[in-house]
Amino acid sequence: LGVLGELRGAMRRGELVLHYQRKECLRTGRVVGAEALVRWRHPERGLLGPGAFVPQVEASSLVGEFTLHVLDLALAEAATWRREGHDVPVAVNLSARLLLDADLPVRVADRLARHGLAPDALVLEVTETVAKSELEVVDRVLRGLHALGVHLSVDDFGTGWSSMTFLSRTALHEVKIDRRFVAGMLGRPTDAAVVRATVELARGSGLVVVAEGIEEPAQRAALLAAGVEVGQGYLLGRPVPAAEFRRSLERAP
Ligand code: G
Ligand code: G
Ligand code: NA
Ligand code: MN
């Protein structure tokens, strides 16, 4: 049947689940968000990470249905957090291709309403890897999402082709410094320079900076010193199943 053939049934049977990884304030350690990361509880192959099926999905016509499915799961979970007294926005990864769908803002608004959530309960993480020729459409869709009040985050910042264009043209809320720069910043001056430049750029544009892939206390300290406000990474918290993430919200500041 192949991954794509199986996936429709998998969605219907509830085999796709989301794990959640905290984003926290580097100064206070408070949770300020959570990124939803999809997993497939495959009946024969075990728990599959996104690498085993997301690329195929992204290249197929299933991408829209898949994304709305993931969005629904994430919003249902965010609604639960709210009921339990935690105002934690959930971040969902959006395939770049979906930014070509002019109806995306309407679809997102509909999903938010169904879950009784305000738009700022949702962050959409997008990468910069959108083709140049398509920037106009993408720009319109991003503006539509922004007008709705959803927060837009640029994922893997620094790895795309059009960083400056993208940042200066689009109504964004957050940039996530790609983890390769975090990994390199203590040893490679050029990586440290990318981190500093991103902070500077973000300040000038009123964007929140998130550093991904923080694995060591020394990285966390260096990022704080560089003016990065928010962090994510194994040091602060691994992606964990929904129930475990909820328990961490109960414990955490
Ligand atoms: O979870 P992780 O550890 O293995 O994720 C690997 C990659 O898969 C990351 O680049 C992440 O952004 C992507 N990813 C995770 N969940 C989703 C999802 O729901 N949709 C899309 N499009 N990408 C996802
Ligand atoms: O592309 P995206 O930024 O969405 O990637 C998220 C991916 O990063 C997930 O696969 C997640 O498991 C992974 N990740 C999260 N924290 C860390 C970390 O501290 N180190 C590494 N190597 N990967 C991380
Ligand atoms: Na992401
Ligand atoms: Mn990333």
UniProtKB/TrEMBL annotation:
Residues 1-253 form the EAL domain. This is Bifunctional diguanylate cyclase/phosphodiesterase.
